[in-house]
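New to this. Explain these tokens.
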Amino acid sequence: MGVSPSSALQIVINNPGVLDQVYKVDQAKPLGQGSFGIVRKAKVKSTGAVRAVKSISKQLMKEKMNILMKEIEIMKAVDHPNSIMLYEIFEDERNLYLVMELCAGGCLHQRVRSSGHLREADAAVAMRQIFRAVFYLHRSHICHRDLKAENILLSTSASLAKTLLKVSDFGLSCTFRPKQYLLQRVGTLTHMSPEVLEKKYNQSCDIWACGIILYFLLSSDVPFQDEAQILRGRVSYSSKAWWDASQDVVAFLGRLLVKAARRQSAEQALQDQWFEKCLPATVEPVLRFTLLDDLRTYRELNKFKRAALSTVASMLDEAHISESRDIFASLDTDGDGLLSVAELEERLRKISLDKAMHRAYGRREIERIFQDMDDVGAPLKDFSYTEFLAATFNRAECLTEAVCREVFNALDKTQDGIIDFKELVSGNMPAPWWEPVLETDVAVAVVVVVLVFVVLLLVMICCRCC
């Protein structure tokens, strides 16, 4: 199978080792079971972080292996708080094992069915997260093509205001070029847009599907049942569930469930007045004073160390990343999954509690944070979601020897206890990540053995970043 690196972790996540050496898999009741495999709960042995492991039979999937490979490649490219994360891939003679985020709250469809339908405020909370994920996917030139409430997972069983929603199931997703038309009729009929039925569409088909999801959240039903109804495009609001609906949400649905030429983009949808009026007030997390120093120090590290820290972040449990995740979500005001200079500067200017921080960091100092020190002449680089987590997690608590050894194993693709020069340049990370490494930390040796690597992380990274 393909060995392209994960965009989030900046390493190849295909692990040649044995799944049970890294994860303790719960062999009791599975979380789910489908035609091609089983999903089980697992824990990272070094950190206790809970994950979902999807085992897929190679024999059963042999006729559709190319579809699975496309799905995996798209999951590798996704890095957003509201999209499911693929952490690692294992393989043996019989199965592929995909290690992913565990969403213990079930799916959005189940949540709606159990409550009858949602209040508008709760629907706004859910749809804002879904649109943020779709905005990110479209900015990354990915069209999901099967958005529906069943494919929106909840991180926990807490209320919608207190849990993260995650877009999942990229089995029908594809990449696209600007102005390209997609020609395959794929997806779930009740969520297909008219142009999908006509086999000439673009990424705006996802926006139509978001409209169907919103309609479902508020009524526990879908507006269209068959092709004729979809092509006719008449949305009914006559059921009892719509008696108390606001004019704003009906108007919003009218901007989503409309011909593609007049349909809103995800970015436009996020700016709709319905969200402004319906979203409940939230308290923005306070930025700790050391946050900007953490971001600046992270960007000053070479790519090898940054990739190692990103791998560490992928192994941490919810308790160690929740604060950083919430801060990132509050700073990423447009929801595109990237933290920009303008967004950070605006936050510092806006919040009175951060006046001291704003005085310490003017425009020039903020721009330095976004400078890639491995490529000084390049344009300023936004922080991705995983980069932000990697830059801001608590080093003193999380960088244990056990974690460092697991990071080493993730980079040691031959599993011989040594990372040699051939492995450094073999594609385990995107080129030319290893060039600055050869000029710094490992220039003194042809190989990096496990003890040296552990010391490298614990001393050179922990001491510089704590």
